Amino acid sequence: MYVTHLECPKCGAVFDHRKLAGLCTKCSSPLLVRYDLKKIKEKFSKKRLKHRSYNLWRYKEFLPIENEKNIISLGEVITPLLKLEKFGSLAGFKHLYLKDEGLNPGGSFKSRGAAVGISRAKELGVKSFAMPTNGNAGAAWAIYGAKAGIEANIVMPKSAPLITRNECAVSGAKLYLVNGLISDAGKIVAKAVQKYAIMDASTLKEPYRIEGKKTMGLEIIEQFGWKSPDVILYPTGGGVGLIGIYKALLELRAIGIIENLPRLVAVQAQNCAPIVKAYESKSKESIFWENAHTIAFGITVPKAIGDFLVLDAIYKTNGTAVAVADEDILHYQSLLAQNEGLFICPEGAATLTAAHKLLKQGWINPKEKVVLLNTGTGLKYPDTVQINPITLEPNGEIEIKF
Amino acid sequence: MYVTHLECPKCGAVFDHRKLAGLCTKCSSPLLVRYDLKKIKEKFSKKRLKHRSYNLWRYKEFLPIENEKNIISLGEVITPLLKLEKFGSLAGFKHLYLKDEGLNPGGSFKSRGAAVGISRAKELGVKSFAMPTNGNAGAAWAIYGAKAGIEANIVMPKSAPLITRNECAVSGAKLYLVNGLISDAGKIVAKAVQKYAIMDASTLKEPYRIEGKKTMGLEIIEQFGWKSPDVILYPTGGGVGLIGIYKALLELRAIGIIENLPRLVAVQAQNCAPIVKAYESKSKESIFWENAHTIAFGITVPKAIGDFLVLDAIYKTNGTAVAVADEDILHYQSLLAQNEGLFICPEGAATLTAAHKLLKQGWINPKEKVVLLNTGTGLKYPDTVQINPITLEPNGEIEIKF
Description:
Two copies of one chain form a homodimer. Chain A is an alpha/beta fold. The first copy, chain A, has a domain at 81-107 and 208-384: Rossmann fold (3-Layer(aba) Sandwich). Chain A contains 13 helices and 14 strands. Chain A has helices at 37-43, 46-49, 85-91, 110-123, 136-148, 162-170, 182-196, 209-223, 240-254, 274-280, 307-316, 326-340, 346-360; strands at residues 3-7, 14-15, 32-35, 81-83, 95-100, 128-132, 151-157, 174-178, 199-200, 231-235, 263-269, 320-324, 369-374, 390-392. In chain A, the strands form three sheets. A six-stranded mixed β-sheet of chain A has the order 4-5-13-10-11-12, sandwiched between helices. In chain A, strands 8-7-6-9 form a four-stranded parallel β-sheet, with helices on both faces. In chain A, helix 5 links the parallel strand 6 (128-132) and strand 7 (151-157). In chain A, helix 4 (110-123) crosses helix 8 (209-223), helix 8 packs across helix 9 (240-254) and helix 12 (326-340) packs across helix 13 (346-360). Chains A and B meet through helix 5, helix 6, strand 8, helix 7 and helix 12 of A and helix 5, helix 6, strand 8, helix 7 and helix 12 of B. Strand 8 (174-178) of chain A pairs parallel with strand 14 (390-392) of chain B, so a sheet runs across the interface.
């Protein structure tokens, strides 16, 4: 393992990675995992990867696991990077790609954070954790927790997608619903972790989830033949994925694998767009968004603890932040399924909506390589699809009009 | 492509694979795709696979696609073969594995049949098809059909899992529900394909779906280092997966890759067990099962058109057929999730139930390598999980008992 320490990106304080850590004890910022990049530069070779398993653990130089025995795996795969030929040519893109995180165990990108976060928690001796969630993250930590034998206490909004409740329950997690938003769930968890002295697995309150999400960036770069695409669009709630992808890009640049960085785009919903608002006013941090609500439930985060890291990634890569309307999200979700056969989640559809908007505005050039992050499968959001099937009796007939 | 012809496994009649074919025109049996195995033996090498994409298309010598341009892909992956260490040691298995087909596009093994079936249909110029389904197959053919630009007409029982309706609808398929079983849906489709002269994509009424399912067998053998495990358990409704796996094994044996075949086990539900009944009476075919019903909806097939092929595979490999109770299926589904973090579908859980039963009966030896086929993700079956979460107000607290 090449981890050297944990570092506060706000005040620069340094912490020991061999001890369980939460936020910076000096300024309450999330901590980042730092590696000996010089050593990685010496040891890492693209060729060596050919002999490794075809999943996120192949990037072991960039991961914070000391002993491979502690790896908790549910069968992660390198998720496909699909070229959207038909939709792309309809919309005017020459090179539009979708990275389909719906093929992760549990059907969402949250598995990456949980795989690495739980593995490291196991390595550090954690027995129990609590976390607030909009659904998918809690489900992912619950299933990986079950495999690791670590107790999971999950608090989610009552309005979170129903299926994620089932995942928590079936895997034996303790599940609580709250009449409120993820921010209310967060307060409940904060009280519990203090009272019971268990691990706080809230977004960015432990440093290892980012390392798991980082692997999306590593995979994208490898899938493009170790080159950067031009633009990556990411549906942004807590923003950990975007922070992770940016961290991957910086680490790969530091060891000389890539030169240029793609422009990173944070996509939010019009009725919950604190990052977009902050970006438009050139702020370094966001302001709590009142009455947040969107069909893209996973990105209903009124104020992200890592907002300053998200905004930094956008500014430093000459990216942008875009808000899209719920009705457009549903429209593009169905357009994609009809043209490409991909049933993606509304958060993923938000990136498609935003990409088309940016293309029409000229911010994206038709010739650029553009990557959409679909963070999960549409299967977990059956309510986003309206259906009116015809019901027949056993002796009935179907009528086909050509 | 190494396909030489289509062959009737019942009467031996031979058909031209370059023409769209249904059942044997002489005896109404399903047809099998035959290859020039001598040529494949000359050309196929395990080493060459190392340079190929990590998905089912890597086995191109064994697939019926002439021009790679016709391949319709939604990002298939080599699905993980997971060793169930914790559950295995609790139950007394030394080497218990689960092949997790839930990581396919659309969340089920049906993608394999649809990927190859739709690709070949496109190659043969098909514009429209109709099919009866218990849900997952229709959903898979709908999404692959959408990508291929082939019109899908799907007829499914009203009681089929709700989420599969959404997949059909969102991808633009024409969806019909029937007040009855898949056999009733089959009759409606039979009338439609005759009336409108469109392709009949019913189970085994077109020969290419088996070729897609076959890739499960190819992957399992490659994942065991090109060796056979001892036992493979498969949840059996139409039985195409089992027929496909058996076909893969025979083809690999014919070209000298493996010597021994694993014993194949068909797993059914107690209230829909026509194959088990036939096996117990040493019959070559099954009898229509009246009042079929089980929570493992995908295997509610009262009489499979390929029953004789399933039974043949069982007899020839010294396999067996086992029926399990719905309440046991739910119990094992939850046991697996709690121990291994895997939320599998009830059909997959049926194989776990059956494996444990066969171990206790001594039919499986604790030291044998046993593979369970989990045909899909539990996410598509939220109703199989009972949950009673505690609801809190925003100022609430959680109570943890150690």
